[in-house]
Here is the input.
Amino acid sequence: MVGDVIDWGGLAASGLVRLEIVILGYFLLVNSFYAVLLVSAVLEMVQHLRVTWLEGRWRVLNSRVAPTITVLAPAHDEAPTIAASVRALLALYYPNLEVIIVNDGSTDPTLDVLRREFDLIPVHPIFQRRLVTEPVRGLYRSPSHPSLLVVDKDNGGKADALNAGLNVASGDLVCAIDADTLVEPDALQRMVRPFLISGEIVAAGGTIRVANGCVIRGGRVVVARVSRRPLPGFQAVEYLRAFLFGRLGWNRMGGNLIISGAFGLFRRDAVIASGGYEHGTVGEDMELVLRLRRRGVELHGPSQVKFIPDPVAWTQVPDSPRVLARQRDRWHRGLADTMWRHRRLFFNPRYGAMGMIAMPYFVIVELFAPVVEAVGLAGLALGLLTRAVNLPFAAMFFLVAYGYGLILTLATVLLEEFSFHRYASAGDHAVLVGWALLENFGYRQATVVWRLRGLIKYLRGRKDWGAMERKGFSP
Amino acid sequence: MLRTVAFLEAALLAVVLVVIFGHALWLQQSRRRGAVLLARAHAALSEVLQRSDPALDAAPVVGSLSPALRIRLFADLAVSLSGTAAARLTALASASGLTAEAERWCRSRWWWRRLRGARLLTVIGGGAGVVSDLLDDPTPFVRAQAAEWAAAHPNPEVIRRLLDALAGGARLFRFSAQDALGRIGSGAIDPIADYLATHRGAPVEPVLEVAVGLADARLLPAALRLAGDESARVRTLAAALLGALGGDQAVAALGGMLEDRSAAVRTGSIRALGHLGQWQAAPRAATLLRDRSWQVRKEAGMTLRRFGAPGTLYLRRALADADPFAADMAAQMLDLPAGGEPWSVT
Here is the structure.
């Protein structure tokens, strides 16, 4: 027995190496799946450009048979931005447009600003409370802007505000947007396209781009620029990657599970029939999309969700690490909560590609990626320190995890360059490429920490939003 | 292995970067150059369009442009021209070879080429011989574009085909065909009236939707006939059409529809009577305040408000109604805030 002493150190080192190999394989698989998504996105983009070539969108603008749209914008303590945002919404190029602003119990003068800027007068609300919400204090209309309706209600959170808006909305379609989002004037004409094409569509989403650094006049982005500040710059790259190849690619691979809460178009009847926005989650936009799709499959109704790349809304992203950390933490809690609520869809063939591809992807890749990445990086550092892992392995790890990812990110920039080319100057391209290169050194690791924190908070049962700070757009 | 992967990634990275910056610089240059050429051509073509025989001077102006710029030039000008100027632009496009090119695309085996052809001909005009054939194209996008083209080139045959295709067409084509019929306007009334006189059920729904927007008296017989259709959706649309047309016959038919078995039809009928200002219908509207459907009760209340004094009288009486739902709706209608106007979701 004396000769059979167990070499615990050797066993641990061997275990660590095996773990690192598994994680390396994980990154290889994930990045290869991203490459498939990118190919899918390129095919979608080609189709999109063919269909929209020389398209006469003015036809929708003055058509008697175009579907009516209600824009729902919840506002909570948005006094600095609300007037400009509402003016931009009222100036959207769409016929039969109704704009509903829901003042969700603001503690700042949001309602006063609206009253003053739009000469609001009270109207008598006669509507059916099909969705239960916090009490509505009053409804206001503007004589100078007949399409504007303001709902003043007790605070109940974003989901509650959207439900209150849904109760009084009259459009065939409802467009949920954040009040601090700048929607491009012709975005709705573009966004309505899938609903005209197919009766199977239950929701459609557009692209969100980063407004930080852009030249904004009169509530419109007049010159698209890439922010020179690191945090908004990194997020510009992230948004481009998430929308242009992530969501566009999903159109062909089982459909999207996410429509951004900042800019999405839904069938009103379907949203109301499915119970509206869920109060008890911080990921209400994703939860709604999943519920709509699930219900559509179960009841053989419309269940498809389409992402359209050309309708654009611009949003101010957080430029402080503290606020960004809170946002990412919340997003990840929302993702975890939605996946848990709809866990029955996971690898369930009844739900087709949504159950067999999209759900497993969101759980294995999106939800657990920070865990795997954190373990992988910590294990690599430990392995290098204890010499269980050699430098060539570490280099390979970085090439697969980060190098491969960087090429995919730059391929997205290329896709943007060949399709929409929103950043006109070569200087902006250089900055964008620079942020794409630099995000791998610090920023990406920080998002891993924030998302991990979100996951831990979710497991502990935290459901709060965390405070967001609105800066407002320069005039 | 490591070296191979590193080399491969570095090479890919370099290629992507070169393409990104190369394309960005090329596009920047070509846009700058194109803008100058386009502005020059735009000014010259605008001048040519004002002359009596524009085709003679068109070639040197248009010929100096690349095909893409030529299309852009004509498309830019076409949206702001109508009447004689638009006809001249069509002639210029034909003389420059653009129309022939578009017609060639319309005959392509690739759907996206056919779509391009139909779209270009919709913008610049022309293509009478080829685009109407695309109304039967297997691709919905192409059919829809052909329908859009048809709005500016109406003839009895095209209108008949649009109407026939409405019933079973793909959603996009249905929207385009409905839109085209609405734009054709009075020229489409007789064919629509004939269609509605000979069809019933689901196939007439999209046609009735167009008819409501057109609201022409020639559609009255068809509306009266369809008010008794088996489909509730058709009866609801017929009520809307009757409300848009008005007249004794329409009012009488709407009165009868207030007792329809479908709540949607009762709602549509009382709304139509409200729009027509038929205050004589106030007693019937007051009865509907007791309806089982909230939508009907709400619409009856709104209609009574719209009737003015006679309606308000019935609403006040309804406050003491034995039916608590009728009393509640009347109270909601009368209980206005100071300076407030009634408003409801439709």
